[in-house]
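Course assignment 3, question 2. Fill in each field.
Student: A.L.
Task: Predict the tertiary structure for the chain below.
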Amino acid sequence: FFARDKAPLRYNIFGASIGGPVIKNKTFFFYNFEGGRRRTGVTVNRNVPNPGEVNGDFSRRANFSLLDPATRVGTGSAQPFPNNIIPQSRIDPLGRAIAALYDPANVSTANVTRAPANNFLANGSDKLTQNYHTVRIDHEISAKDRIYGRLAYVTSPEYVSAVFATAAADDRAGPRSNRHGNLLASWQRSIKPTVINEFKYMYGNRMHINRGAGTGSGLNGKLGIGGPVDPDAFARVNVTGYASLGQGTHERIQQPILTQQFTDNLIIARGNHSIKTGFELRYSRNKDDFNGTSGGVFGFGNRATGDGLAELLLGWTTSGALVNTDILDTRTDYYGAYVQDDWKVTSRFTLNIGLRWEMDTPRWERNNRQSGFDGSQINPVSGTPGVVTFAGIDGVSKYAHQFDKNNFGPRFGFAFRANNKLVLRGGYGISYNGTYQGAVPNAFNQGFSINGSFSSPNGGFAPAFLLRDGMPAIARVERNSSFGAVPVGRAVTTSPDFIQQNMVSGYAQQWNFTVQQELPSSVLLEAAYIANVGHKLGGPGVNINQIPLVNGRGPASQSQALRPFPQFNSVSQVSPPWGNSTYHSTNIKLEKRYSRGLSFLGNYTWAKFIDDVESGSELGGATNNGYTHIEARRLNKGLSGSDIRHRVAFSSLYDLPIGKGRNIAIDNAVLNHVIGGWTVGGILEARSGAPYGVVEQTNRLNTFSDAQRPNLIRDPNLDPGRSRGDKVAMYFDTSAFQSPGVGILGTAGKTNGLGPGFFGFDASIQKLFQLNERFGLTFRTDIVNAPNVPAFGAPNQNNGNGAFGRIGAIATGSTAREIQLSLRLAW
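Answer field:
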């Protein structure tokens, strides 16, 4: 906030000066505070029961038979309930009470003769408070030594509003809290004129708390949900074809999330060589108290009756789970080193040659609270392969897997100046990803948590348990090779997870070639070819405990005994390093440096992106992580969910030529204040849609697989010239997808068409009022989404869902038109 020296006092207020002599290369100290509150409006669409259906009356559904699962026993096939109405004597009181937590449908156009489809619409307002404190110091110790330091502290409490009347039952509501402190310090020393060294140290400490609105509500106890669930919370209830009730995460407290980083870079100039070398060390720690689903998770499918709500009313629980972990204090480190030579071969030609080595250490837990899985060891309980392992027991390492030490990444680049206006550039390099596809702070907690997993033994026709009986008991047992297993034929209780022992880091080969040509009027034209090919990429976790295919098909019926590890429920491999990706693009850039009041930057990109795994934050993509069966990995190759074929971006600032000091000068001071000195600007982006993929809402592959895809019988694309309303109601031809039947993979690919595109234009208008030589007042208007064009999210991609093919939400991060007015005084 102020700068001070032994000379007479001088203050710097964000770079402005007040009194005193000019300070030269001494100490500068700055403090900045920025904070505020904002509310974000949200519109939520949900599938909720049609009127009367919470009482078991499905009689108004056209062409629908509500099956009675009790009639399946001994016959192999179920008979419909008379008149599609569940008798009141058969309705589970707890199931009815949970179903009553759905708000009534409020969309007048909802068709009660069909399955629910976006028949509940609500608006909410999410509250976020953010305060930023920043302190910075720069000090020149001597002509050879300079130090720099920055301390940043951020708090950002948030409350996500409920859209259902009972907040505890809402699937999105609850408080969030984030606090982050960050310290950065550096020391730069000129050892001699041709040798410079810079050392940096970074310390980061973050806290994150996430609580669902059901935490502390006591709703489980009030309803009477039994078993080992927390009575003070509310369960997560997943009903196929309907909105979920309750939070996916009941409570999670991460503190500290700690990072320390040490970096050193040395630059040596020798003739026409500039050699850079350095190293990086990074320490990471995460202390995690994860009571993720302590209120329980209850799943209700639709295979037994034909409707998920009916199975909730019957208390026909297809799956159940509960996770409440001990506090896990996990660690990992990173090591990296590099050397690079920038060699100026001639005045026109430069080569860049380098090599980097890097390694992430495997995850470990400070108290050895870490489990794993050995798929080859025979289990003493079941007599089949597969046992849960534990760090520090029976010779198991404290690390989750082996070290991957051979991550060497060469770099090569060149720049050639053909003439004063034409430059050619190119490069090639190998870069390595982090070891894991996503965060793993609370993974591998078997034996160090209250952890239970229950599922239907035959794919949903029989229940995992009845809701009225409560979730089965979960008890801690001794950590040995028998952990979590049951004899073959008994109901399973445990879902282990693990990382393969020979885990490797994924890598990408990247190359490019660029031509830059200077045009008249300070305009630069650039054409570039860019490629990125990835291998051994970490994919989303996958359940490997799937019934093997026979002649490419699943069995006629699903049986727990046919699984490779029948003593367990799912067995999840975390971040399997099996992914591949290919990206090629052409980029055209036009840039004008500021001159004559105008500057602009425009880009057009044509690209094609293919992969066989889903990344962590794709714009579109398939549901269920793009997986079907683990033996059908070849079918997972297709357009990536982040494949944006065409993208145009343009930004510009233009000083209107009217006003004092501009081409059309105005001498009258009053008139100049009114019409002179204006600047306009804008940012435009337009892009084609991201691919979407379709799966079956009811998985009939009968293998405990991740998903089943439908048959694609024709092109699903409809006329792109249709009205916006028609596109929202049915974005693609849903009849082009056909359920493949029992045990069949389906012919549809991972992605099947392109979702909605995007068009956005933001504008700004500003005017400088020069009050005198020292003071200036800037008035500015910023307009986000000036044309107020909605950016739609992907259509519903579940064949068999009442909302299949419909768009039910705007895209994440999109906003309606927002206008901000501001005044800024500078001196």
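Instructor remarks: The first strand starts at residue 2 and ends at 4. The mean pLDDT is 91.
Grade: pending
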